[in-house]
Amino acid sequence: MEAERTKQKPCPVKVTVDLISGKWKPNILYCLLDRTQRFGELQRQIPGISRRILTLQLRELERDQLIIRMAYSEPIKVEYALTEYGRSLVPILLTMRDWGEVYLARHEQQPVFMS
């Protein structure tokens, strides 16, 4: 019983960061803001991401119900889109984009760490 009383609710900020963190998840979500996309389209828009990592990140985003994977047999294709739940992240993603643009403008003359 003592363990139940001391168990804390997860921090909402940590939950959000955990769901969208990683080197590529924010980029993937941002690419899906405006439209449904196929795997190859996503890979072309995110330079440096490998097929394996893109697949893993898409699976995690689907598992967390932020995106939906739609498979069609005629013609054979797979598309990805934000779920309604994933669309609720749009204001956060747009704010991150805007903040990044301001940061880059302020630090134009200085090297920026990019991993």
UniProtKB/TrEMBL annotation:
UniProt cross-references to Gene3D superfamilies, sorted A to Z: Winged helix-like DNA-binding domain superfamily/Winged helix DNA-binding domain
Pfam families (alphabetical): HxlR
Keywords in alphabetical order: DNA-binding, Transcription, Transcription regulation
Gene Ontology MF, one: DNA binding
Limits of the HTH hxlR-type domain: 11-108
Top-level division of the source organism's lineage: Bacteria
Name of this protein: HTH-type transcriptional regulator YybR
Species assigned in the record: Halomicronema hongdechloris C2206
Organism lineage string: Bacteria, Bacillati, Cyanobacteriota, Cyanophyceae, Nodosilineales
Gene it is expressed from: yybR
